[in-house]
Amino acid sequence: MRLPYVPNPPKFEDPAEQAVLRRVQERRGEKGLIKLDLALLHSPPVADGWNSFIGAIRQRTSLPTSVRELAISRVAVLNKAWYEWKSHSPILREAGDLNEEAIQEILNSPPTHKDLGSASKLPEKYRLVMAFTDASTVDVAVPDAVFEKLKKHFSDQEIVEITATVAAYNCVSRFLVALDVGEQNGQPKPDS
Questions:
Q1: Do residues 100 and 46 both lie within one domain?
Q2: Are residues 160 and 76 part of one domain?
């Protein structure tokens, strides 16, 4: 990390900062604070907003775990945020909807949005989530062809949630990489 992590547990005296810490700890549960939290808590107001937003993305959307985690894991790959990959690819695996070959494709495929992942072996709805994630992450603008096909598989609410997930985790990955949270910058791409 390019900055020191705050102490774990943080030693906040201000009641407002203590309240932020409690909210972050509550969302993390038994596993406790992670390195990302210990970086964010340098700024309790930022940590609080982050905790609320990412908490909504992770815990309160209608998306199946496999769709959400595919988007998050793919953002990690595209942005070389290996700390993020190592945190989210296990959740994608545990969801059980995609086999190891599919997860390797998510890890190793070049961006797929220009050809809609035509060479992909992923089931169509996952292939389209990956193409959407690739377009939104690499080019920001999503081609009409990708968007129209995505609409055939997902409701308006789900598309908003996919879009918010991709946007949120582009923010997360950029924070992780810029500050080298988890000391993963410069590491080779994981094998799986």
A1: no
A2: yes
The rounded distance, in Å, linking the Cα atoms of 24 and 51 is 6
Q: Are residues 109 and 150 in the same domain?
A: yes
Q: How far apart are CA 115 and CA 175, in angstroms?
A: 30
**Domain count along the chain:** 2
Residues 39 and 105 both lie in one domain: no
Q: Give Cβ neighbours of residue 69 (< 8 Å, ≥ 6 apart).
A: 88, 89, 91, 92, 95
Judge whether 1 lies within some domain. Answer: no
- The two structure tokens encoding residue 35: 């390195």
Side chain identity, residue 44: P
What's the Cα-to-Cα distance from 86 to each of 70, 81, 171, rounded to whole Å?
Answer: 13, 9, 17
Provide the domain limits for residue 85: 65-179
Shared-domain flag, residues 171 and 157:
yes
Q: Tell me the per-residue pLDDT of 49-105, one tens digit each, with 9 for 90 and over.
A: 999 999 999 999 999 999 999 999 999 999 999 999 999 999 999 999 999 999 999
State how far the Cα of 89 lies from the Cα of 97, in Å rounded to an integer: 13
What number of other Cβ atoms are within 10 A of residue 51's Cβ? 21
Under 8 Å between Cβ of 89 and 105: no
pTM across the whole model: 0.93
Same domain membership, residue 138 and residue 50: no
**Taking a C-beta distance cutoff of 8 angstroms, is the pair 36, 132 a contact?**
no
Rounded Cα–Cα distance for residues 139 and 133 (Å)? 10
